Amino acid sequence: MPVYKPPGRWPAPPGATVVFLAGSIEMGAAPDWQAALAARLPEDVIVLNPRREAWDASWRQAIDNPEFRAQVEWELDGLERADVIAMWFAAESRAPITLLELGLHARGGRLVVGCPEGFWRKGNIEVVCARFGIPLVGDWEAFAAAAVHAIGVARSPRA
Q: What is the CATH number of the domain that holds 92?
């Protein structure tokens, strides 16, 4: 299956199923859950993984920094194109950008969220998911299964 990471472009031909792996990265400090999930997804999906191979933590996080802006634009483009947004909040992370992305896409009907006990804002995530009907699971195995299920739902013909 093709897995694309920033800053590279990704093709998404009409009819392709695109999955965006949103969630804890913490500038590389969070576990690489993205690779583990990608390995469980169907071979014919296009996976967008924002975990950049060569992230430079010294980059100034400002709109006039071209490297930083390209990363953020890549993520925003991918989130908008995705048929499924699989969002994992690692318990040991803070994930402020993921919280922002949850708010941006809560109404879109494309999210599946995993948030284990111990995540510092789990209650907020529970309330948002309940309010907007977002599937929420509390452990890794259930999250991986929910992501695969969401792909099947996204591919099913709509009535």
A: 3.40.50.450
